Amino acid sequence: MEEFPPVTDPWPRRLAERGHTGARRIGAGVEGVVYALGGGRVAKVWTGRPPTGLALSRQVYADIAAHPLPFATPEIFEAAEYEGVVVTYERELPGASVHGDSAHEEFDRELPAHHRDVLLTTLRGLATVPATEAMRALTVQGDDRPLWQGHRRFPSALAALVSRAVARNRDALAVLVPGLDAGVERTLDALRSLPDVPDTAIHGDLVPPNIHVDGSGRPVAVLDFGFYTTGGDPAFEAAVTAAVWDMYGPHAAAHAAHLTRLFADELGYAPTALSVYQAAYALTTYDLFGMGVDDGHFRWCAEQLLRNDVFGGRQP
């Protein structure tokens, strides 16, 4: 059998060549791989290119960081391009992930109380950051235009995104979701009927690795903006967070239902709004990583729709 040399990471060497000796990989997310440089800085080596350009991403980071929050958020200090690869030099964020990703680390049957406290603090904090034009100019991953383009209301912009996303690969989703077209129409009608609320910053991907806590369990940083970051109804953030906090564990459905009720009670969001936003999230992300029963996210989105009461299913 032919032997191949082990694959090594070239970026610590490349960063050292640019004066950043001792760079070490500390994490990876949707946007790219992150290396600690020391001195309170990290380098992010982007996977592909920022969909809306570095200048816009940098402005969104600055808009959020300028607002007083009980936790740190990313800031881009400078950017460069090496052989076609974008590298940004950013603020190093403190703390450690509150929990591993549910695809790799199971949650207990009952969510820890400090998880609920961390989530409420994070959601309340982000909901104080007013939406800016830079946030509204962002493009959601998988789409071909800024979410808000041609719209003045977040629910209307989201409804248009649902229509575009479903059209991408409708037949594949329909295999797992009987009555897809009728459910989509119910979701669109429900979105369009939602009332106007003050728009705030939306992270859009508050999974456990993206919230860092200190030794006492207090949230000290929120990272990895970009996947679904925009400006809009803070209830959307709460709805998506409830759904994605534990996506793949054996108690995922019960945890999502529990968090949805908690956020409705503690944050004052209408349960119907949370349900319709959860359906919209599934309909707009179902095909981003793969299609068919072999793809975990695709299956997860289908399952969300099948039990979503606004889409046409039943909540657990």
UniProtKB/TrEMBL annotation:
PROSITE patterns: PROTEIN_KINASE_DOM. SUPFAM superfamilies: Protein kinase-like (PK-like). This is Aminoglycoside phosphotransferase family protein. It comes from the Bacteria. The lineage of its organism: Bacteria, Bacillati, Actinomycetota, Actinomycetes, Kitasatosporales. Residues 20-316 form the Protein kinase domain. InterPro entries: Aminoglycoside_PTrfase (IPR002575), Kinase-like_dom_sf (IPR011009), Prot_kinase_dom (IPR000719).
